[in-house]
Amino acid sequence: MKFDTLSLTLGAATALLAAAAVSLSMGAGQDIDWLPASAARETAVAAGPAALPALSAQALTLTWQQSMFSPDRKPDLVSGKAQASSLDGISLSGVIVDGSSRWVLLQLPQKRRLKLAVGSTLDNGWTLDSVTPQSATFSHQGQTRELRLPLLRLPPPSQVPPITLPHVPTP
């Protein structure tokens, strides 16, 4: 029988793989060689993240005047006309509470929307005194009024009886 080089090469590779499998099954390579112990290093104490600086109200007003996402945005119009000295027709449509910054979003009678920060005054003289997540308190000449966010509710359950299928005997 004549062996060619390919058969000899495959036979030698098979013999090497079989020898490697036998040596691994007998525990070869299971020793762990640890490095020598070194002196312990001191780790630096990690400081917490730095607090962001508080922005002044003047710096925050720039965000209402120009938007980075809508360059053609214009500041809210301020009318010079004196309005009625009440909050009739004005509704609270939103409250923004972000840390120490507090604003309200108001819907005015002319369908105009207005953003107002705590301490700011409406054209009719009412000053925004305080904001909670559900309400805004205004004061004017010793009077105090509170506007609340509308509480949305589900409609009452239907009085119509549910649909019933007729009783059909199985065939």
Automatic annotation (TrEMBL):
Keyword terms, alphabetized: Signal
Range of residues in the leader sequence: 1-28
Top-level taxonomic group: Bacteria
Record protein name field: DUF2531 family protein
Provenance organism: Pseudomonas lutea
